[in-house]
Design goal:
Elements (H helix, E strand, L loop, with lengths): L5 E3 L2 E3 L12 H17 L7 E2 L8 E3 L1 H11 L2 E12 L2 E11 L5 E10 L3 H4 E9 L18 E6 L2 E14 L7 H20 L6 E3 L26 H12 L5 H12 L3 H20 L11
Parallel strand pairs: 4-11
Antiparallel strand pairs: 1-2, 2-7, 3-4, 5-6, 6-7, 8-10, 9-10
Amino acid sequence: MTEITTTHESVQIVPAKRDANGWTPPAMIATQKQMIVEAVGSYMVEGEDFGTIPGAGEKKVLMKSGAEKLCFIFGIIPVIDTQIVELGNGHREYRSKCTLYDTHGQKKAVLSGSCSTMEKKYRYRNDTAYEILDEPIPKEYWKNKKKFKPLGAKKINGQWTWVKYGSSEKVENPDIADVWNTVLKMSEKRSFVAAVLVATAASSMFTQDLEEGLPPAQDGDKQPEPAPAVILATEEQVSEFAQILGQSSLDDEQVQMRIDGLRRQSTEDAAQTIETVKQQAQQAQSIPAPTDEDIPF
């Protein structure tokens, strides 16, 4: 049977196998959907493999770790090719193409994704002026931080310090090369997750985990705010979480993925996540290193 590839802009979709009449058998559709439902219920963790983005609707988004599990379940092998486009002044754009194959070598889907250091989250940094105060941090601050603004706690040289914040402005990132690897991984992730959604026909259950999932702001408009009842993880929690993960064996991409996930959690859920990671780290440290007698060969 001739393989037909349909192309729409940067997206290529390779249809699944069909019967002699060119139709996809209903039993195959039902089986595929049931496998995804069972995978979500039995093997995938909400908040880690999929979840919601505040302000982006009720539909769950598929995260990279969830896409990896779907690949394992359906026997899909990803191959990603990435091109680097130099934009000048140290800026780069990474253009990735993810091709998915089944275990027989048949192509299942081909989709593209890109990421650039010109995106505002990478191009700019917040530069907030502050004044160090010779005062202890009030205990009440940790319970009601808004009450103390513009005062706040800031970690300086590893120590929490009481400061007075001033004006804040966005400035060009002076160390743009520091985000090259992050932007590369983001480009690859975008193409990978998009390809998995197509190859597994999981778009009915998930959308893509796009950090820019909120609608872009127009001139004079503001980005929609999260529901007021949900208070997301604080910067202090994110900083503490990053410090714990920095002492683990996770690589930079895995650490960043978990930090991104924590940012989407409520303060209560984030506190539980941090406590769980602390306990896991303590348990790992308490496990004695194997001796020669423990090794059977």
